[in-house]
Design goal:
The complex is a heterodimer of chains A (93) and B (269). Helix content of chain A is 41%, strand content 22%. Chain A is of the alpha+beta class. In chain A, helix 2 crosses helix 3. Chain B is an alpha+beta fold and 269 residues long. Helices cover 25% and strands 38% of the residues of chain B. In chain B, the strands form two sheets. Chain B has an eight-stranded mixed sheet with strand order 3-1-2-4-8-7-6-5. Chain B has a five-stranded mixed β-barrel with strand order 9-10-14-13-12. In chain B, a hairpin with a 5-residue loop joins strand 5 and strand 6. The radius of gyration of chain B is 18 Å and the shape is globular. The chains are: A alpha+beta (93), B alpha+beta (269).
Chain lengths: 93, 269
């Protein structure tokens, strides 16, 4: 995955909130994944195709952090989402 | 051929069988009504009726509760265990059930009913006992051996809605438990009707008796594995998840630490 690759979350996931906490419902595999606030926000943004660059810029602006830090956090979080099988693999080359 | 009109919660199952032992078992454990009455009956929610043909066949339960799901070339859904075989059309108008014995018959009927109420988006069949106390229903659930039926037994003389599998209707306007014919030992008289659900208690055995609230988001996850269900379609699984969330958002959940005596009722409210 590069900063310019377009990514989205896996189709069919349901992103929902309960008691202020984000959850992803994956009916395909009967798995519920819990996310913190930033994770939930990233999953919201991944509803549509975006690049890592665009994500980093968006988060840097929303959370008022340096773009480099946002990029590093995004790369790490996307890695976790990939391992958890929550990204749309059709976008991968 | 025997035709029986079985009443389960707000649903009607029109059972047809040529096997007398199947007819006798159904008449013993289900509330039935005159099949003639169905023609004039005004059913709630526009009428939820499924026709079920039952017959004997297959082999003894082989010890595995694993169910193989699939589809026939004609597009019927299939659910297969060593001792029962269910086919049903995707719209749930008509089902066929082949069973080996009464054990298989009970499980197959629970299986079909669970599939049916999730298909309708009506509610869930939850592995639990349910007791009415002062007009409020309380559910007791937990892992196998945690004390679900013990809690039900110790609640005497309170009225029971279930001792094993509770029928829970879940809507945005409220949650209601109905009398369950799917019992393990404390048989239904069928007259208990329904009652609003006030609380769900997850059982843990302990020297001390106390309760501890469970946050809705944890309750949601913990209730999902208490549902009697066999996934065959992600869209149906999503319905369960949504119903589970709606349930956890409306009904308070607690862990109940209890000894096997009736003192735990002092901690229930």
């Amino acid at each position: 995955m590069t900063m310019a690759d377009r990514i989205t979350r896996k189709p069919g996931l349901d992103l929902t909130q309960m008691d202020g906490e984000w959850m992803i419902l994956d009916a395909d595999r009967c798995i519920v994944t819990r996310l913190n606030d930033t994770g939930g926000r990233i999953m919201e943004l991944l509803d549509q195709e975006v690049t890592q660059d665009e994500l980093a810029q968006q988060l840097a602006a929303e959370y008022e952090i340096p773009t480099e830090q946002a990029e590093a956090d995004i790369i790490q979080f996307l890695g976790s989402l990939k391992v958890a099988g929550l990204l749309d693999e059709r976008n991968e080359s | 051929m025997v035709d029986l009109n079985l009443i389960i919660a707000e649903h009607r199952l029109l059972a047809h069988t040529s096997d007398s032992w199947i007819a006798e078992w159904l008449k013993t454990f289900f509330v039935t009504e005159d099949t003639e009455a169905l023609h004039t009956l005004q059913l709630p929610n526009g009428g939820m009726v499924i026709s079920v043909n039952l017959s004997q066949g297959l082999t003894l339960f082989d010890g595995s509760f694993q169910v193989r799901t699939g589809a026939t070339p004609e597009g019927l859904l299939t659910f297969e265990r060593s001792d029962y075989y269910i086919t049903v059309d995707p719209s749930f108008n008509e089902a066929n059930i082949i069973v080996y014995d009464t054990f298989a018959l009970k499980h197959a009927m629970m299986h079909l009913y669970s599939l049916y109420i999730v298909h309708l988006g009506w509610g869930l069949l939850i592995h639990s006992s349910c007791v009415i106390d002062e007009g409020k229903a309380f559910l007791f659930s937990g892992h196998s051996g945690a004390g679900k039926s013990t809690a039900a037994r110790l609640s005497n003389p309170r009225q029971l809605l279930s001792d094993e599998a509770s029928i829970v209707r879940i809507t945005a306007e409220g949650v209601t438990v109905f009398d369950s014919p799917f019992r393990s030992e404390l048989y239904s008289e069928g007259a208990s009707g329904s009652c609003p659900l006030t609380g769900i208690y997850l059982l843990n055995q302990s020297e001390e008796i106390f309760t501890r609230p469970i946050a809705g988001r944890d309750a949601f996850i913990r209730v999902l594995d208490k549902v009697f269900y066999w996934s065959y379609d992600p869209a149906e699984t999503m319905k369960i998840m949504k119903l589970g969330k709606l349930l956890a958002a409306q009904v308070p959940f607690h862990d109940l630490y209890f000894q096997k005596n009736n003192l735990f009722w002092e901690k229930i409210s």
